[in-house]
Amino acid sequence: MPERHFQMNILHNIDYLQTLSHTNLFLDTNVFIGALTQPDLGNFLFKIKSHDCELLTIPAVLTEFLRGSTNLKTYSTRTEFVENLAGIFPTDKLLEQMQDFTIVMNSTSSEADYTDFLLSACSYKFKCPILTENHKHFPLSIFERKQIITIDTGKDIRNYGFYQISERKFNKAAESILKQK
After folding, report:
1. pTM to 2 decimals?
2. CA nearest neighbour of 63 among 138, 118, 133
């Protein structure tokens, strides 16, 4: 019986992708994992990058991604993959002067882990989107889901979302939350 090859489909809105030109896009750990294991997703990200969108991540994402290495070859492959795809944005001073953001985020997103909290802070501070598969970690009470891309891998369906802090939603939540604190 001949071997069957399945071609992945990535469903997305081309109009939204054009809005990413000359912007930053922060990538979550699950995006790197997906891009490494699903070549079409990796190619899609390089296509976004080729349209003058700067792909970035943070040290916490890099650490999570590299933790999946089981040997030196895998570690080296993963390190090279990140270096070729995205820049690493330092977060050591990110939360300085962001007390309001911290309180609002903590009050609206009980499921966000440390890494997603920092990615959210990047979205807030730099007014740019995040690409992630962790939909519950980016609450629509303060985020806009700008676009979903769906990938049919032949074995399952993967949905990644472009999330960005909504200034209007954030200010509305902040007004309510901060007056209580």
Report:
1. 0.90
2. 118
